[in-house]
Amino acid sequence: MLIVLIMAVLASGTALATTGKRWQHGWQCFLVPAPAAVSFLLVTFAAMPEVIRQGSIAYTAKWIPQLDVELALRLNGLGLLLLILVTGIGALILLYAVGYMKGHPQATRLFLLLYLFMFSMAGLAIADHMLLFFIFWELTSISSYFLIGFQHKEQSARQNALQALIVTGLGGMALMAGFILIAQVTGTWNLSELPALSGQIQTDALYVPILILVLLGAFTKSAQFPFHFWLPNAMSAPTPVSAYLHSATMVKAGIFLLFLMLPVLGGTGLWTWLLTIAGAITLLTGGAFGLVQHDLKKILAGTTVAVLGLLTLLLGIGTERDVLAALVFLFGHALYKATLFMVAGSVDHETGTRDTRILGGLYRGMPWTAVAATLAAFSKMGLPPFFGFLGKEYTYKASLESEYQWLLTTILIVGNAIILALAFKAAILPFWRKAIHPLPEKLHDVPWSMRLGPILMAGLGIAIGTFPFLIDPLISSAKSAAMGYSVQTEIKLWHGLNLPLILSALTLSAGLCIIVSREWVENMLRNVTIPGPAKVYDILMDGMVRFAIWQTRLLQSGQLRNYLLIIVGVTTALISFKLWRFGGISDLSLRGINSPELVVITVLMAIATLLAVTTQSRLTALIALGLVGFGVAWIFAYFSAPDLAITQILVETLTVVLFAWVVYKLPQLRTLSSRRTIITDAVVSGAAGILITILVLKSQTLQLGSSISKTLSEWSLPEAYGANVVNVILVDFRAIDTWGEVCVVTIAAIGVWALASGNGNSKDRKSK
């Protein structure tokens, strides 16, 4: 029940957020993040001890019993780590958002959407059933769509939100398909049961499609190459959104999925190659993107993409050392990146710009923000004794033990050096270099609601780095869940003078070289114009729009004849295909249609039909169509369906009368259709008629068990208390169908009445 309580508290935050606008002053600003803070305390002091002691805690309830679907929730070490980040960082960012959005008319909407996203991410961390996991997965995409497009009056915000939704949404569909295949192979929908069935999955013929589909879901959500382009564009969202979604939580959802799937799908050559190649390209691509940017948020977005690639690369190798390095790096990155995003928002809030070419000397007016930015930057650079240093050290230890140690280590050195240079560019230069342009006269630091979060998280970066044993139990629990078996981990700051330490020094030197020559590096990268996946996305979207326009012009022509032609033609083609797949016309039966009366009436109807389509006289065509309708009524009566026969006679009579009333207004028949149109109509209608004839003949060969008429007759009196079988069928067995027919007839009658009553208003009629 503890899991349910945590989710209930987060859900209550959505209700409180609707009144958040009134809590933006004084101490009341702490009320908005209160539910998130309470959830964080429950996770940290109630759930974490239980998870560390037992390995996991679970809750199960009936959800859809008819489909044997349960509401299965389970919190293990991995989910615990994600839940701590979601609730802890979420509470601080909500507090930051209160100050950042002060006076904004749509502040309440932002609080509500942030809580909705937080609830979705928390559900993702604890969902055990794959269907439930997928629901929360899609909820994160939908809520992030609204958050990215928060400034919906701006076209760029709408476009970027749609881009993120399309990319992550298509990945979600692929993930759902992968989950279905996994359930088909294993017979279970519970994620907690999959590690024990990994051998069964990996030896199955569906392993490759399962792996590709699951990785598509993870890669799109965590912005891996070639789907990395959506994340920098998502920076059009307000800064609290960028700090929360695209650095600390949402983009980590795909990495979280890779952690979950490591003991299930990992360990194979295909897993290793796909993840390491995609991760390495993403690491370098994200870093290169950040180097050519001057907007603080765009720079930070580039480093986020790079770090996500680094984490994917480590999980591709998948050893215990790699998993440990990925967990430490993930935790440290969440702390310093959320801090730096909030710092960027604070700078923009006070100066009105995020351009690094303009900013400088901000420490004079924003000392607290400068301290938070500097501490977070040092952690991001990987300097001791900050938490980021531990993450970098463990990545080198992991790479040195891999099969391709020097190749991977070289990639990591280059990537970490770029990240170091970007940290200097985004967090050191704006505060500590000499001001390039005059600062605002009354430059001052942001309110405490916007300072507290960055200071606390930056302080945690140095506290955990100095005393890493504080998180040993948490990391050990998460590592055990990721590996599929219990392991104990001891994280240390100092391991002596060894090769990873030398590589860290080499990284620092390389980063300083990039900093010194940053202008030359920027110019070089700008001159390299290689069409990327973003261009492919634009081409595909433009092509889809053009195709939609062409398709609409073709299908929605405004002509009833074209609509009927498309409907009848497509239906005939599809049914003919299925008929061919299931035996064709080899077993047709003429039983029951060989009476002389039927032959005579059929011949007469055929003659009337031929006359209707060939005559040039409107009255003759109308009479011929009426004869066809009355022939159908005669067939109904012949086969003991007097109610249908009477209905057909009434409808046919009414139709002939109405047509006779308006037929004189129609143009001459010879002017209605060209020869090509006549031939097309004849082919399509003839094919449809032949198909219906074949289906009727084929239906006589089907074995449907007991007679339908006999069964309905037997049910009529005991089930519906009616002796008239036809009436019982209409008002009981087919009640909804009959009700629908009544509605159709009523609507048609209203339409006829409206047409008969005249067109336009009285003034129009007088003018005519």
Task: Write out key terms for the chains shown.
mainly alpha, 768 residues, disordered C terminus, 31 helices, 2 strands, two-stranded antiparallel ribbon
In short:
This protein has 768 residues and is mostly helical. The protein is built from 31 helices and 2 strands.
Q: What report would you give on this structure?
A:
The protein is an all-alpha fold. 72% of the residues lie in helices and 2% in strands. The protein contains 31 helices and two strands. It has a two-stranded antiparallel ribbon with strand order 1-2. A hairpin with a 4-residue loop joins strand 1 and strand 2. The longest helix is centred in the N-terminal third of the chain and has 32 residues. The protein starts with a helix and ends with a helix. The C terminus is likely disordered.
Query: What is the overall silhouette?
Result: elongated
Helix content: over 70%
This entry's quaternary arrangement is single chain
Rounded mean pLDDT score: 85
Structural class: mainly alpha
Largest sheet, strands/sense/barrel: 2 strands, antiparallel
User: What is the number of beta strands?
Assistant: 2
Q: How are the secondary structure elements laid out?
A:
Layout: H1 2-17, H2 34-54, E1 56-64, E2 69-76, H3 77-100, H4 107-126, H5 130-148, H6 155-186, H7 198-202, H8 207-221, H9 230-233, H10 239-248, H11 250-265, H12 269-291, H13 296-317, H14 320-351, H15 367-381, H16 387-400, H17 405-432, H18 448-466, H19 472-483, H20 499-516, H21 518-527, H22 533-555, H23 560-581, H24 596-614, H25 618-638, H26 642-662, H27 675-699, H28 708-720, H29 725-733, H30 735-756, H31 762-767
Antiparallel strand pairs: 1-2
